[in-house]
Amino acid sequence: MTEHLATHNDPLACAEARIRAIIAGSAVPEDPPHAENTLQWLLRLVPDADPALRLAALGHDIDRAVPDKVRREDFDDYDAFKAAHAEHGARILARLLAECGVPVPLIKDTCRLVERHEIGGDPRSDLLKDADSLSYFEVNLPLYLAREGEAETLRRCRWGVRRLSANARQRLARMHFADPRQAAIVRQALETERGGAAKAPSSLADK
Ligand SMILES: [Fe+2]
Questions:
Q1: Domains observed in the chain
Q2: Which residues in 109-118 are b (16+ Cβ under 10 Å) and which e?
């Protein structure tokens, strides 16, 4: 009964709690800290980020936490896999947000951001892409390296660097890595991809 009332009294709190509960069940150990850290990066880039951006930051990878998640092995192309992952996450969130009573325009905005979180294309989805990518380096990289090895991690890091705006690349270059192997991979990825920074998301990102 309490939960039912909370759902209707505070749709955003309901949505955040349900997103966190689903991601907590992910089989991938870095998923819960990555969701929180992506939100933290968003708020570092834009302290007054709007509710749709905050929900999208927290829930952008919700697809990875559900039993029928999109699987890498079903795709030859990495970008096609990522696009399917983003679309599936948006569909999951649309249902979840509606069940919490989130207003329809906010649902549509949040889901559009999640659909574009891998590719950006406008100032707000570019910010989400930057926050997501910076969080990969801060939170996911150590576990990814332990699981996938150096060659695959370098490939993933180069892909991650290519997604970053110039502003976010500067933040990555200043990031500290305690493990010298991680530091070397990130340095190599930054050097290899130098010169091709994604367009800066917006002046908001320089706040
Ligand atoms: Fe992510």
A1: 2-206 (1.10.3210)
A2: bbbbbbbbbb
pLDDT for the residue numbered 197: 65
- How far apart, in Å, are the Cα atoms of 105 and each of 22, 23, 85, 142, 166? 23, 24, 22, 38, 31
Q: Report the percent of the chain where pLDDT is more than 70.
A: 90
Expressed in angstroms and rounded, the spacing between residue 103 Cα and the centre of ligand 1 is 25
Higher pLDDT, 26 or 1: 26
**Residue 27: DSSP 8-state:** S
CA atoms within 13 A on the CB side of 138: 22
Burial (0-12, 13-18, 19+ Cβ within 10 Å), 48: exposed
CA distance 107 to 30: 26
pLDDT at position 50: 98
Distance 1 CA to ligand 1 centre (A): 34
Question: 30 C-alpha vs ligand 1 centroid, how far in Å?
Answer: 10
pLDDT tens digits along 154-203: 999 999 999 999 999 999 999 999 999 999 999 999 999 986 666 555 44
